[in-house]
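$ run holo --ligand "NDP" --emit tokens
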Amino acid sequence: MDSGSDAERTGTVLMQGQVTGQAGWDYAPAPEAASSVTLASEYGLFINGEFGPAASGRLFPTVNPATEEPLAQVAEAGEEDVDRAVAAARAAYAGVWSRMPGTERAVYLYRIARLLQERSREFAVLESLDNGKPIRESRDVDVPLAAAHFFYHAGWADKLEHAGFGPSPRPLGVAGQVIPWNFPLLMAAWKVAPALAAGNTCVLKPAETTPLTALLLAEVCQQAGLPPGVLNVTTGAGSAGAALVSHPGVDKVAFTGSTEVGKEIQRAVAGTGKRLTLELGGKAANIVFDDAPVEAAVEGIVNGIFFNQGHVCCAGSRLLVQESVADAVLGRLRDRLAVLRLGDPLDKNTDIGAINSRQQLDKIRELSDAGEAEGAERWSPPCRLPDRGFWFPPTVFTGVSQSHRIAREEIFGPVLSVLTFRTPAEAVAKANNTPYGLSAGVWTEKGSRILWLAQRLRAGVVWANTYNRFDPASPFGGYRESGFGREGGRHGLGAYLDV
Ligand code: NDP
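-- output --
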């Protein structure tokens, strides 16, 4: 199926500048200026404090998913480059960073945090160009949270002996960190900030489709005067990630991405003595009870699955709604979706941006088609998709049964599967009927019910009357097929210490 047939199936999602029809008024286009970013035609690897080409000289393009136009060529790291990066990280660890007092490490982390804030517009625009996410999200969520992670961990750097890990906790050494494309800068911050605060050095492998903000972060580290080799960025394909995690010079592996690759990494690391944390996929239940405030719950459902085009590991991709209020909730949900604005990620009015890659778009289409073929009912608001780029309309499936693929598999797109329940026990049973265990949401006005559910939901994070809330002080992570280990808070710090 091509993008044209998605558009036909759904009729017309509002594009920037179109009249909403019913309301009879319109948003004027409000594009953020792309000129706040100066794109280079070529980007190098960041090793030992300097940008330079890959040993092979190979480059790969990174494209703007909203237009399919190339943004830049980026150096493709091979084994030799990964080896050089790990050696630089090892030398920086042994010679400088692990010996530096925490008070001094904190100075660098505070500097990086402040530079992220100072250059926030540049980061937000670059993230939206490379990833396709709306500028409103990169500006208001990704970049401020990334800065917050550096501020938070800067605060820990000189207080590690008071963190409850014994009188003088030691760092692990060199951390090999592999991150995905859904929150490129934020995932870099989640990985790098605690590692550096604890006294480790890093080699970071960004996702192939979104390398640019990690390289801008490297530039910020240079600007902050971070000693050479403390952070290294090896852009490239999955093979560069594989070379990094299996490199004998790496002491700690941290990975965020698909469950499939997570399992491969676990196999590669098994028996090596390397520490490992895996933050993998999810199929979270967002549970709405009959006493929930409907308007707030609908906002939570929309935020749960349509934030970041649903490219969120903890997305509330299964809505479990109590049968007695299902019609009312779904009616309000449809009304709300009808006024979401899909289009130019750089427009400040945009709610839903582009799908990150053709490969991901194909996966979303394939699973959505499977949903229809298996008998679920598909609905999208009237919606016209742009002619170029990778787009998918917000989509809701009703009549979903637990055996359907769309109720079991991570779609990682703006697709919601709706199931109903009658009793709290049934809600728990359905919510837990997944191999994943990353997150869940509960909407009810009863505090006792929230606590009852939180004890029974097998998920690393349970949000109550809210969804997709993140804070650097709050540990995040899952179990079962969602991985293990925590990021954020004291727990996340512990993952980078020899404790
Ligand atoms: P991957 O898990 O393949 O990618 C995540 C990161 O791992 C990327 O940097 C990738 O590099 C790298 N990588 C790939 N193969 C290896 C390997 N063998 N060893 C080490 N690193 C490797 O996710 P995809 O981007 O392919 O997405 C596939 C699916 O995964 C999505 O459709 C979605 O369902 C799920 N996903 C889940 C995420 C989550 O946070 N839970 C995040 C991203 C995806 P490269 O980009 O070059 O391939």
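-- notes --
The chain has 16 helices and 18 strands.
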